[in-house]
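# nightly structure sweep
# worker-07 picked up a monomer target from the shared queue
# config: single-sequence mode, recycle default, output format = structure tokens
# input follows
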Amino acid sequence: MTQKLLVATRNLHKLDEFRDMLSELEDVEWVSLWDVGLGEMDVEETGATFEENARLKAYEYQKASGLVTFADDSGLEVDALNGEPGVYSARYGGPDIDSDAGRYTLLLDKLASVPDEKRDARFVCVIAIALPEHDRLEDIPVVVGTVEGKIGYGPRGENGFGYDPVFELPNGRTIAELPDAEKHAISHRGNALRKALPVIREII
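# output follows
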């Protein structure tokens, strides 16, 4: 019997990454918010941390759908900016900036005078997995994945999304310059999903 698992995101890039990185799982059908009629439902991300937001989204969408629900909150933390953009990564700069390029351009502008040795940054991904029996936010398990790097001086690469074109790995390449398989092997979301595998296998 196929187990439906809801990925609580409108970002089809994330849904594709879940499917690609967990393709080894059999009898699993990954579905999106649109697939279950919840594409217009909006859960306000009021948490102060990635963990709080991930749990909040997983809980609300699980109760609305009745399905085992995966929700992630992820973003970029830049040391020189005291952790910005952090939980605001997807809406950095406010409503006036409505594109990935606009957001990473704002980031580059803020770091214009910051020297190379102080441009350390990391991507963080927290995945929360909500089941029907979870009645409290604190009962929902989370897994955390990270990848360390630094912010470059301009975008490079055509693969990926978000801040990938400006996030340089220790080998000098940006995440947007990596093929999918290599990206999934080292990415924050890939690291978190690998930690989530035992939980998923227990569910199914």
